[in-house]
Amino acid sequence: MQPSIGQGFELTVITAVVLGGTSLFGGRGSIGGTVLGALVLTTVQTGLVFSGASPYVFDIVRGGVLLAAVLAAGARWRDLARAMGLTARRPSVPGGRSAA
Fold first, then answer.
1. Residue of 42, 38, 36 lying closest to 13 (CA atoms)
2. Within 13 Å and on the Cβ side, how many CA atoms surround 64?
3. What is the rounded end-to-end Cα distance, in angstroms, of the chain?
4. Is 66 exposed, middle or buried (CB count within 10 Å of its CB: 0-12, 13-18, 19+)?
5. What pLDDT digit, counting tens, does each position of 62-96 carry?
6. What is the DSSP letter of 16?
7. How far apart are CA 38 and CA 50, in angstroms?
8. How many other C-beta atoms lie within 10 A of the C-beta of residue 20?
9. Pick from 68, 65, 49: nearest CA to 11
10. Which pLDDT tens digit goes with each residue over 26-57?
11. d(CA 92, CA 99)
C-alpha cells in the first residue's frame, strides 16, 4: 500500500465537485453531478493532451474552470436572493453614486 496515491489531485477533485453543482459554502451535492463534473473536466484535459499543450497548462485550466464555476454559483445565489427579496438594493444618490 502506498500512502502517496492520489497526491496532487486535490485541485482536480475540488474542481470536479464544484463543477458538478456542490457549493463551496455548504449545502448539498449529488454523486451524479460530481460524476458529470469529473467527465467534463476529463474531456477538457483530454482535449489539452491531444492539442499538445504543456502539462503546466493543465493546472491553469483547472483553476480557471474552478473560478468560473464558483463565480457562476455566486451569481446564481445572488439572483435567487434578489428574486426572493432577501437583499435590499442601496438607494441611489443623484450623480450616479450609491449611498453608503
1. 38
2. 7
3. 59
4. buried
5. 888 888 888 887 777 777 777 777 766 666 666 65
6. H
7. 18
8. 21
9. 65
10. 777 888 988 998 999 899 989 999 999 888 88
11. 6
Tracing cell 451569481 back to the chain, one arrives at 75
- Lookup: cell for 35: 460524476
pTM of the model: 0.66
The span from the CA of 22 to the CA of 63, in Å, is 16
- Distance between CA atoms of residues 60 and 70, nearest Å: 15
CA distances 64 to 13, 15, 38, 92, Å, are 14, 9, 15, 34
Residue 5's identity, in one-letter code, is I
Cα–Cα separations (whole angstroms), residue 75 to 23, 37, 78, 82: 12, 19, 5, 11
With 90 as the cut, is the pLDDT of residue 97 above it? no
